[in-house]
Design brief:
The complex is a heterotetramer of chains A (513), B (121), C (234) and D (268). Chain B is built from four helices and no strands. Chain B is mainly alpha-helical. Chain C is an all-alpha fold and 234 residues long. Chain C has one domain. Chain C starts with a helix and ends in a 5-residue tail after the last helix. The chains are: A mainly alpha (513), B mainly alpha (121), C mainly alpha (234), D alpha+beta (268).
Chain lengths: 513, 121, 234, 268
């Protein structure tokens, strides 16, 4: 029952928020308390070994829409709850229209539903609902650049969803069902058939547009960099992850391990390369979202227990620190008058102290300083990588992360008399606490043996060396400028690149059988 | 056969989406792409000699598969929602830039405040 | 010039390759219609709706339909939000000629009739709440064309309509949630299924159809009115 | 069965034609037609529910909102090339003779006036494609045979002057065309500074020649082209009703002596 109530109650609260705008704060608190209760009930059932599973509609599982509260789904739902709480606290005192909170609730509701659903078409509708909600959220302030970024987002994501719909059609034509648990047995029984490859490639390409995979999510840098901080945090922390959860679910059914690894490596490396060359901090964060998705995909594609758990923990960890980064940078940029590095450095004394401390925690988290969230998740993930080559790629990405975040160093240290508002500090503390206490919390998700193994001396030394090397490299290359193609981000080219990406996925699936 | 037509329509839609510069026509092309995937779904449920899926119990005639049709109803509405919202955003952009040409809007936007990275350090 | 042409050739080439690849692979994989018989074996008795599409749409896949209604509501809300913010302005009257008036006097009741038919008999014959709502809204558009949107808006207060929309959405959600709170999980066992083919059959489908029709009517009219009132320069 | 094949084959053709239209309205109506065809195809594919939904939503509702969106009611959209004295920006406001005439005309027919400044070539394109109602800013009437464009009665006399190809000798071929430089007036001044004026321009109307002279460009060797010239507005040929309305307004303006007043005020 909690499985259905979680999303539906959010939808009810969404409608209530817009009907009774005055009681918004009450509804916000109420919805979070109810969600927490429902989520803990689900977690209890999962721990007992009987994850809840329901089939909505008067048909048995496999025909009606099935929802399942398994590990992947529950992790994501908890992340959604945490980020929703953080964003609610962040916007507590802002004068925003009820419309904003309606969209927020719808977005969170669709995240809950997506994390549990095993039905392809239901997932399609949830993706579209979240697309529309975040589309409106990005353009909320009506600035032309936001509107343009939003439009770009809608066009690409709708193209991706059409490709996804074609995939659903191919699946249905051959299996006569859309439920992933049933599909799994059918696909396993017919390995290497051409329709499996076609359907898999179409579905993966469609979701990849939403999942922040580099050659597909070309709308992402603009949309994430231009939206309001609270919206960027949700987009980066949650909406992208909806696609990632979709890929996880597909990964259980279709043979796409190799595809995920290669896509992960591409998006990881290219994201870093673009991030290195970004001096607008919000844009840098947006490119980093792409690169961090790379870790998650590589971890999941490795198809080992530790890799999978590492990917899940990294998904949560990334949600925490990326949301915190966007929120703090957003406030800093608002105080400093601009989000490019120069303005931030010049006005760094205007950044409130609480914000700065939170920013430091988030940066340390993302570059993987032990024992913060980034380190823990990355270490678990690395334990699960089967080959040396993958290790090397992941190391390269870590170094790149450090190099690009070294740019922020001058902003981090200054004295300031400004103070952040209490609700904002609460929101920072909530996320920052999550980053610091990630290790004890991750014991809920990952078995102690694996977590403890992550804290071996080797990993700690590796993390410190990476940070040192990254810092040193930054001083070597910081004067260099290089031009990267920006043509691919234009509306005229990006649909073509998505189609080229489809060929790539198709080829990788043929190779990966 | 209908499936092939659906794929061709999908292709026409993407061509127009990429090559036409007018934003309104881009949106129409997007609608065509969605309509093409919807046509593909409907074509799956159809079978030779079938009737429409409306029958009383005990009626054993061959009918078209009702599931794709039910799915498609939702997809059509989603398509409408996308087209309407995107149109509103295009209208806002046009009010600002007085043109629907996507390339010109991009140029204007770049001129307005250079979005390119301002190097520093 | 040549660069443009190259671009076009490149684009068309890639898209043709995409279409060719999926088309050929799909045809060669020769889908067998028998694979998708699963849904045909059941349905009418279980849902009590002789229109099987309605049975699946509002029973097996109720959650999808709910999401679809939400998507539609988001669209309506977005359109209204963005188009209303432009300053309040005097509304232009559309045309008012005699011929149009006469045509409308004939068309508007027809639209109303169709709407009722589709909503009430949606579980027995083709139709359904969504189409019904849109038809009613377009009927209203005819009336607006004849009498002017200004007169229309005076009679249908947009604020009251918006309130009505929210209330209908809440009732709809409550209707979906009621079985879940009562612990009856499939969400569809609220009303008896009845004999297929009769008006009062199909469990809650009839109620859902009418609710959705009302919701969509209000929403679609709001969208049309917002676009009609907006004096854009597109 | 055959009907279905025919309809299916028609789909790509209709879609292709609709999406290659230059006029937006035609494209929208074409796609509406496409949706109707699609609904018919669905009906023949034994999917009546889908057919009804597609016909009501895809064909009716989408087409309705797109048509409503692109119709410019309540606005007289004017595109203008900036021409000092006639119609030009001055700070935040727009001034000039043509602006005053247009303002009065818009008031008379009960519309809001909205003016956008665009380069000259674009003025013609926009008016010809019905994207704007009138083109203004020193438009010299065109030969009536030219494409989809027509011009209103003249409201101000002017002359057209030819720039020699090389500054040395003055040997001007009579040029029939109106000013045919590209770009804003301010861009013309750039050409003057660079000394590339004569290659950028072949002929200019009086207002622009005067303002060039005022800024100090050298106007030697300039030759007046024979013929009667005057300023007018550009309008699409098909907009006969608007043409008639404007002609009536101008006659009225002239008869009441207001036009002479305006010209006096702006050019003395």
């Amino acid at each position: 029952m909690p499985l259905i109530l979680l999303p539906l109650l959010r939808f009810v609260f969404a409608t209530l928020t817009i009907s009774f705008a005055r009681a918004r704060k009450l509804f916000t608190i109420l919805s979070h308390i109810i969600d927490a209760a429902l989520l803990s009930q689900l977690a209890l059932m999962l721990v007992r070994g009987t994850p809840e599973m329901v089939s909505v509609g008067g048909a048995p599982a496999g025909i009606g829409i099935s929802l399942i509260g398994d590990q992947v789904g529950l992790t994501f739902a908890v992340l959604a709850w945490v980020l929703s709480a953080a964003v609610s606290a962040y916007t507590w005192q802002d004068k925003l229209r009820p419309y904003f909170f309606l969209l927020l609730n719808l977005l969170i509701g669709s995240c809950y539903a997506l994390s549990f659903t095993t039905d392809l078409f239901n997932a399609y509708l949830l993706f579209e609902l979240s697309t529309l909600a975040s589309f409106l959220l990005v353009g909320y302030q009506r600035q032309p650049r936001q509107i343009w970024a939003s439009l770009h987002y809608l066009v690409l994501s709708s193209l991706g969803m059409s490709i996804f719909l074609l995939g659903i059609g191919v699946v249905y034509a051959h299996c006569g069902c859309l439920d992933l648990t049933v599909l799994k047995t059918i696909v396993k029984a017919s390995p290497g058939e051409s329709w499996v490859l076609l359907a898999g490639a179409l579905l993966v390409a469609g979701i990849a547009v939403k999942a922040g995979v580099f050659v597909f999510s070309l709308w992402l840098p603009a949309a994430h960099a231009r939206a309001m901080p609270a919206v960027s945090a949700l987009l980066s922390g949650l909406v992208i992850k909806m696609g990632v959860v979709g890929l996880f679910r597909l990964g259980d059914v279709f043979p796409i391990d190799l595809t995920l690894i290669v896509l992960g490596a591409i998006t990881g490396i290219l994201g870093i390369v673009y991030a290195l060359n970004s001096y607008d901090i919000k844009r840098l964060l947006a490119f980093h979202t792409l690169s961090q998705i790379g870790y998650i995909l590589i971890g999941f594609g490795a198809a080992t227990e530790a890799g999978r758990l590492g990917a899940l923990s990294y998904e949560v960890a990334h949600g925490l620190f990326k949301a915190l980064l966007f929120l703090t940078i957003g406030e800093a940029a608002a105080r400093a008058g601009g989000s490019d590095l120069k303005t931030l450095i010049e006005n760094k004394h205007k950044i409130p102290r609480g914000t700065r401390i939170a920013l430091i925690i988030a940066v340390l988290g993302i570059i993987g300083l032990p024992p913060l969230a980034g380190f823990d998740a990355k270490a678990i993930l690395e334990d699960g990588l089967p080959t040396m080559f993958l290790h090397l790629i992941v190391l390269l990405m870590s170094v790149g992360t450090v190099v690009s975040f070294a740019k922020l160093a001058p902003v981090l240290f200054a004295s300031s008399t400004h103070r952040a508002s209490r609700s904002r500090v609460l929101s920072y503390a909530w996320l920052g606490g999550g980053i610091i206490l990630f290790w004890p919390l991750s014991l809920l998700l990952v078995s102690p043996a694996i977590t403890l193994h992550a804290y071996s001396g080797l990993h700690i030394i590796e993390a410190l060396v990476v940070i040192a090397v990254g810092g040193a490299l930054y001083f070597l290359i910081r004067k260099r400028r290089f031009r990267l193609p920006s043509e691919i981000f234009r509306l005229e080219t990006s649909p073509l690149i998505i189609l080229i990406g489809f060929f790539l996925i198709y080829a990788l699936m043929i190779l990966g059988q | 056969m209908a499936a092939i037509i659906a794929f061709v329509l999908f292709g026409i839609g993407v061509v127009a989406l990429v090559l036409r510069r007018d934003l309104v026509i881009k949106l129409l092309a997007l609608g065509l792409i969605n309509a093409a995937s919807i046509l593909f779904l409907v074509s799956i449920g159809d079978r030779p000699g079938a009737r429409a899926p409306i029958q009383l119990p005990g009626d054993l005639g061959i009918v078209a598969d009702p599931l794709p049709q039910a799915l498609v109803l939702s997809a059509i509405v989603v398509n409408f929602a996308i087209l309407a919202l995107a149109l509103v955003f295009v209208m806002i952009l046009v009010e600002r830039y007085h043109t629907t040409d996507s390339i010109r809007i991009e140029q204007e936007m770049a001129r307005e405040a250079d979005d390119q990275e301002t190097p520093c350090l | 010039m040549t660069r443009d042409r190259l671009r076009i050739i490149f684009a068309v080439g890639i898209i043709a390759a995409f279409v060719g690849l999926i088309g050929i692979t799909y045809i060669c994989s020769s889908p067998d219609p028998a694979d998708s018989e699963r849904y045909l074996a059941r349905a009418v008795e279980e849902t009590g709706a002789s229109n099987r599409v309605a049975g699946i749409y509002l029973n097996y896949r109720l959650l999808d339909t709910l999401l679809e209604v939400l998507v539609f509501s988001v669209a309506v809300l977005g359109v209204r939000h963005y188009l209303q913010q432009s300053e309040g302005m005097k509304l232009p009257n559309l045309s008012e000629s005699e011929v149009v008036q006469t045509a409308v006097n004939f068309l508007a009741p027809l639209a109303l009739l169709l709407c009722t038919f589709f909503a009430v008999f949606g579980h027995i014959s083709p139709g359904g709440g969504f189409a019904a709502g849109v038809i009613a809204a377009s009927g209203l558009l005819y009336v607006a064309i004849a009498h002017g949107i200004q007169a229309m808006n005076a009679q249908l207060n947009p604020v009251r309509l918006a309130l009505m929309e929210k209330v209908i959405l809440l009732v709809l959600l409550a209707f979906v949630l009621a079985p879940a709170v009562a612990g009856r999980i499939p969400l569809t066992e609220l009303l008896p299924t009845g004999t297929p083919g009769k008006l009062l059959s199909g469990g809650s489908i009839l109620v859902y159809n009418i609710l959705i029709a009302m919701k969509v009517f209000v929403g679609a009219w709001a969208v049309i009115a917002a676009f009609a009132q907006h004096r854009g320069e597109l | 069965m055959i009907a279905r094949w025919i309809l299916l084959a028609l789909l790509p053709i209709v879609a292709g034609i609709a999406l290659t239209q230059t006029r937006r309205l035609s494209a929208i109506i074409g796609m509406g037609l496409f949706s109707l065809l699609l609904a018919a195809v669905y009906l023949l594919m034994h999917a009546p529910d889908v057919a009804i939904t597609e016909a009501t939503i895809g064909a009716a509702l989408v087409t309705a909102i797109y048509v409503l969106a692109i119709r410019r009611t309540g606005r007289l959209a004017v595109v203008a090339d900036e021409a000092p004295g006639l119609i030009a920006r001055e700070g935040d406001s727009i001034v000039g003779l043509e602006y005053e005439i247009l303002e009065g005309f818009a008031r008379q027919i009960g519309l809001d006036l909205s003016v956008h400044f665009v380069p000259l070539r674009r003025v013609r394109w926009l008016v010809a494609h019905h994207e704007a109602d009138l083109g203004a800013g020193g438009m010299v009437p065109l030969d009536s045979g030219e494409g989809a464009l027509a011009s209103t009665p003249m409201h101000l006399e002017t002359g057209v002057f030819a720039f020699p190809a090389k500054r040395r000798s003055f040997n001007v071929e009579p040029i029939q065309e109106a000013p045919d430089y590209e770009g804003y007036f301010s861009e013309l001044l750039e050409h003057d500074k660079n000394g590339t004026l004569s290659t950028a321009v072949s002929s200019l109307d009086l207002a622009r020649v005067l303002s060039l002279g005022r800024i100090g460009a050298s106007l030697q060797d300039l030759g007046r082209i024979d013929g009667q010239y005057g300023y007018a507005f550009l309008i699409a040929k098909q907009r006969t009703r608007l043409q008639r309305d404007y002609a009536d307004y101008l006659t009225q303006l002239r008869a009441s002596g207001q036009l002479a007043d305006m010209i006096e005020r702006h050019f003395s």
